[in-house]
Specification:
By secondary structure, the chain is an alpha+beta fold. Helices cover 33% and strands 24% of the residues. It contains 12 helices and 13 strands. A 4-stranded mixed beta sheet has the order 1-8-9-10. The protein has a 4-stranded mixed beta sheet with strand order 6-3-2-11. The chain has a 3-stranded antiparallel beta sheet with strand order 7-12-13. Helix 1 crosses helix 2, helix 4 crosses helix 5 and helix 9 packs across helix 11. The longest helix is centred in the middle third of the chain and has 18 residues.
């Protein structure tokens, strides 16, 4: 395994046009899940462009009117911060094209007298954890998220009025002997108020970056490798500057390219869709394995078939960092965790309306909350993993 290398990951803010779509799609999921009915189903896609939002997909569950959903779409856009001529929460046009779920899909997925709930689709899902950071996430994506989270916080509380909602970050790091040793370049592009120069924006961004990345990783970063708005002006942004689609930032959502990603996106899908729920389960297991000191890093792959409850395969790869036999870890996983869609949903409490906060700044490496968000980030299987070896 390569031990010395340079690696880069990026993040995008909640105001990026693709993330606006993820936010709206996850709002629809949460709205339907709020009824508490475990048979609720949602598959919602969103498109945005200049003063236009289009919702499409299929739903099953409580009766929620078109007007209710459209009102909540406007609330999402307002909360993100869009009050611009080219994209404004009050006057953007919203097209609604949600319809009932296909009966063919429902027949394969729903539980019945002779079968358990099946997976909502076929596919492969991956989970990953490593020791780069306290959150057991790869360092480049972790710090990329932290920069944009801080910028959004300062924008929303009025401390940094220069910023507008659309922004991107990118962190490049040198790894030595498999561990992050220093940042070699930073890129931050942020939409801003009219009349500000790149140098002015850079002076605002620099202290934020320095606050978000440990100083020992930043000591050797050259100023010429710190890029802020490298194209110059960035006033026109968000859906007015570029169209957005749900599910187009899946590497930002996961591990920044440091680990594989399966075939599907997360946002806009209820937890019967294993694209989402099984990816959460795989992260949960990988994180607990690393936290239990069974390995320094861990990749887990799960595979499913539509309508079938059990996973078709469980694969564990620790890239040679394991302290115990990988095959034994693989065999232990189904003893500790029921990987059927129902088992995942119940173990991680995924039928709660918890998905809007996942729509930006990553689905992984976040802190579990008392309201039930990010349950897959808990390390409550550590003792069980440790006691088995």
């Amino acid at each position: 395994m390569k031990r010395d290398y340079i690696f880069t990951s990026e993040s995008v803010s909640e105001g990026h046009p693709d993330k606006v779509c993820d936010r709206i799609s996850d709002m629809v999921v949460d709205s339907y899940l709020s009824s508490g009915d475990p048979q609720t189903r949602v598959a919602c896609e969103t498109l945005t462009t200049t003063n236009k939002v289009v919702l499409a997909g299929e739903v099953r569950g409580p009766s929620i009117s078109k007007d209710q959903i459209i009102s909540q779409v406007r609330d999402c856009i307002k909360d993100i911060g869009y009050e611009q001529d080219g994209f404004h929460w009050q006057n953007c046009e919203i097209d609604y094209h949600l319809h009932p779920q296909s009966s063919d899909i429902a027949m394969g997925v729903d539980s019945g007298s002779n079968k358990d709930e099946g997976a909502g689709d076929q596919g492969i899902m991956f989970g990953y954890a490593c020791k780069d950071t306290d959150s057991l996430m790869p360092a480049p994506i972790h710090y990329s998220h932290q920069i944009l989270l801080k910028m959004a916080e300062l924008r929303k509380n009025g401390t940094r009025n220069e910023f507008e909602p659309d922004s991107k970050s990118q962190v490049t790091m040198l790894y030595e002997n498999g561990k992050p040793s220093k940042v070699t370049s930073i890129v931050v592009s942020t939409q801003h108020k009219e009349g500000l120069t790149p140098d002015q924006i850079k002076e605002v961004v620099k202290p934020i970056v320095n606050e978000c990345i440990p100083s020992h990783l930043m000591q050797e970063l050259k100023d010429e490798e710190f890029y802020v708005n490298p194209t110059g002006n960035f006033v026109i942004g968000g859906p007015d500057g570029d169209s957005g689609l749900t599910g187009r930032k899946i590497i930002v959502d996961t591990y920044g390219g440091a680990a594989p990603h399966g075939g599907g996106a997360f946002s806009g899908k209820d937890p019967s869709k294993v694209d989402r729920s099984a990816a959460y389960a795989a992260r949960y297991l990988a994180k607990n394995i690393v936290a239990a000191e069974l390995a320094d890093e861990c990749v887990i792959q799960l595979a499913y078939a539509i309508g079938v409850s059990k996973p078709l395969s469980i694969y564990v790869n620790t890239n040679g960092t394991n302290k115990v036999d990988e095959t034994k870890i693989e065999n232990l996983i189904p003893e500790l965790f029921d990987l059927s869609p129902r088992g995942i949903r119940e173990h991680l409490n995924l039928t709660n309306p918890i998905y809007v906060p996942t729509s930006a700044y990553g689905h992984f490496g976040r802190k579990p909350t008392t309201e039930g968000h990010f349950t897959w980030e808990k390390t409550d299987l550590v003792d069980s993993f440790k006691s088995a070896f």
